[in-house]
Amino acid sequence: MRSYSLKELAEQVGGVIRGNADVVVNAIAPLDRAGANQLTFISNVKYRPYLSQAQASILVVSEDDVEFCAENANLLIVKNPYVAYANLAQYMDTTPKAASDIAPSAVISDSVSLGKNVSVGANAVIEDGAIIGDNAVIGAGCFIGKQAKIGKNTQLWANVSIYHEVEIGDECLIQSSTVIGGDGFGYANDRGKWIKIPQNGRVIIGNHVEIGACTCIDRGALNDTVIEDNVIIDNLCQIAHNVHIGTGTAIAGGVILAGSLKVGRYCQIGGASVVNGHMEICDHAVITGMSMVMKPIKEPGIYSSGVPAQPNKEWHKNAVLASDLTGMHKRIKALEKKLGK
Fold it and tell me: Which stretches are annotated as coiled coil (predicted)?
């Protein structure tokens, strides 16, 4: 296991050292559990009381946190400890690559363009005309369809399916069992018979995009489905055909985005939310978890509609009252009319 000195870590994040610059760590741990040879950090001011008792070899703190630390603590002082933690976690990351070299069992068409240092895992299939960028990693069991493009330094974990003509940019990360470029849900009804509409658009994904496991992103019906740069999408999400997601947007687990929806830049959509299609969400909108968004959002802000859990008896009473809202409304109107006279 590799060790990292305080001096080395400070150089990575541009932090200021207080204490022994030569002290070393080999792992990161939570503030209340970190011990010798471990680094920890503070992410919220409510945890400041724990700083004086912390046993970690290195504490990542802000200037405002220093007075709460023990005199003999080894500190890495930064502007934003949580951001520094994220960068240090990347620097110290020991996660293996999804593949190494090209496995003998991989099936790669002769017409595929492979960049330098590409790795392809066991039983992966790459079809005619696909283009794989330098240092890309294709995990075991992946499928890359005809004319698809995978950018440089992009990594696909095991069993990812990339359909034909899908384009994925540089420095992307796609977790296992995600499907990109499957058919959108397009059908016409002819007197009870469903007639499938071919989905002839593509999926275009920008650079530095991360997509969680078991997420599905459908190809466009006529135009393309587009995911711009620096978007993060969690596990088990459904992105329907012709959706357009703007730069820097974050989408939590279980979200469903209906077709032809346009989501602006730097939005946040909470888990298990459902957003209607054929409308637009403006830049910098925040939608809290389990929201049902039925109308366009035109102004930045925080939007909610989820119903919090409550004791069953309380919920049951409220449900009974809610079932008679129409009756109550009529009675109130009648009372208002009577009082008005």
Answer: none
